[in-house]
Amino acid sequence: MPVIISKSFRFEAAHYLPQMPEGHKCRRMHGHSFKVTVRLKGPIDPETGILMDFGDVKKVVKPYIERLDHWCLNEIGEREGIALLQNPTSENLACWLFQELKPQLPDLYSIVVDETCTSRCEYME
Ligand SMILES: [Zn+2]
Which of 10, 49, 67, 98 is the most core-located residue (most Cβ within 10 A)? Predict the structure, then answer.
């Protein structure tokens, strides 16, 4: 019987969305208090009674959060040659995180990026 567990992380970052239409407010540099929720799906281990230790999830995800925190996401995209972060929509950010984390978290089910309290994107394969 599968379960879904999730762990959330917060970071502050600036971005601008160069592909939005001329005059759109998101083309201007602005910031968000982002929340990233990592969701894993799989069976409960009959020995331990858990899917995965939340502490182990944190060990994998934290370095990525620290890499994003208090930066302009577009700058990271340019500096590190990451195409998805050169247009850092919540959709592209969720997609990039999924691709980066999946090899290290085989049970990864989805990544949810909240850019405001009411607006979010969920990426899954
Ligand atoms: Zn924004």
Answer: 98
